[in-house]
Design goal:
293 residues; alpha/beta; Rossmann fold; 6-phosphogluconate dehydrogenase C-terminal fold
């Protein structure tokens, strides 16, 4: 499985070695020995960490030098930066280089960086690993982050089947399974299972904050696993999630509208002290969750 000849790419440039980018470097080291790993970052600190832990062959703040010679370039920065980065590194791409990403939205990515690269004569395939953490930074990276995860691939910019297959094989070599869909469907599904729930977690955290600041100590003492698990995801980077929610707002809003109607329903049941209605509402919620996971 780990023979170099079976590696779909020989040199991978990772732009943005945070949690996902750092985990990607570790996973390539583990599952694809012999593949050259190049890391680019704006800041020195993640590159120093990568050097100290021998995560890459090249660690650089030079964008063109990092992508030059790589046959796979993975965009691991926030999606709002993709197009600007591509405009800066495009002239350094080799003729057979493939660009992919790890962004959690896809319509805007294909319309932006994907279209730009295609018009410039280059190849882009969309990727979204359904893996991660509320923790940020390369220091939290894990070599097994992609094991048993699903990676969604999208191909709105029409890479040929052979190249698309190489990208799929790349993710499978890291322990993931691959699911292909179109960008619109991807964005609708992740709005339901990731983006709207992030808002719900943030709402729960905000609702718990007391008007009287003196009560905050009581919350700290009494908050247990239920509250921590329910609100965990909203500990993620506000700037990163600002971009995600803005870019996928059209897909997210219908789920929020449904939730508002549902909240009005449960609020009415609570005010009426309608125990039978509340049990029915909770039963419906339990069935919904069990039908998904």
């Amino acid at each position: 499985m780990n023979s170099g000849s079976s590696n779909p790419f020989s040199s991978v440039a990772i732009l943005g070695p945070g949690l996902i980018g750092g985990s990607l470097a570790m996973a390539i080291r583990k599952y694809m020995p012999g593949v050259q790993i190049r890391l680019w970052a704006r800041r020195k600190s993640p590159l120093n960490f990568a050097r100290e832990h021998k995560l890459a062959d090249i660690c650089s703040q030079g964008l063109l030098g990092t992508v030059k010679g790589a046959d796979l370039i993975v965009l691991c920065t926030p999606t709002g930066t993709f197009l600007d980065l591509a405009k800066k590194f495009e002239r350094g791409l080799g003729g057979n280089a493939v660009v992919t990403d790890v962004g959690s939205t896809k319509e805007d990515v294909h319309a932006g960086v994907g279209s730009f690269l295609k018009e410039s004569g280059h190849i882009f395939v969309g990727s979204h690993p359904m893996a991660g953490s509320e923790k940020q930074g390369i220091e939290h990276a894990q070599a097994n982050l992609f094991e048993n995860a699903v990676v969604v691939l999208t191909n709105e910019n029409q890479a040929d089947d052979a190249i698309f297959g190489r990208v799929a094989r790349f993710w499978r070599r890291l322990g993931a399974s691959v699911f292909q869909t179109n960008a619109t469907h991807h964005d609708s599904v992740v709005a339901a299972i990731s983006h709207a729930p992030h808002i719900f977690a943030a709402l729960a955290a905000r609702a718990a904050m007391p008007d009287d600041g003196l009560l905050i100590d009581h919350l700290r003492v009494m908050a247990s696993t239920g509250f921590r698990d329910t609100t965990r995801v909203c500990s993620g980077s506000p700037a990163l999630w600002r971009d995600i929610l803005t870019q996928n707002s059209e897909a997210i809003c219908p789920y929020l509208e449904r939730s508002i109607a549902d909240q009005q329903r449960v609020l009415r049941l609570l005010r009426e002290k309608n125990s039978q209605g509340l049990q029915q509402w909770l039963t419906e919620a339990k069935k919904a969750r069990e039908s998904i996971c």
